[in-house]
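Message: Just now I want nothing more than another pair of eyes on a protein record. I am handing you a single protein, as its sequence and its fold in token form. As I understand it, each token names a local backbone shape. Take your time, and here it is.
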Amino acid sequence: MAALALFLGLKEETNSVKTQKRGSTKVVKIKADEILNSWLENTTKHIYKTIFSQEKITYHLVGLFSFIFLQTLIFTSNYQTLALPYSFPDHWADNQK
């Protein structure tokens, strides 16, 4: 977490805030971890809303199943082209001549 904070250029900041009752100054520390946690939480919510809306779930599922279907076709076609020359009976080759 600290490495990510350094990467994003975040550091601990000290802000002075006046309280309304006494007029005294109170020191508030904003830690990099709190900023990062809120940033990660907001980013995660945004990604969740963007990816998992109802339409996009449908598009992702259609894409996933079509990818799996095409990979299955490619695998089986390669398997058959490799296996067919060895699986023909001998008399089939004689009929082709």
Remarks:
- The chain has a mean pLDDT of 68.
- The chain has one domain: 13-85.
- The beta strands are 13-18, 25-30.
- The radius of gyration is 31 Å.
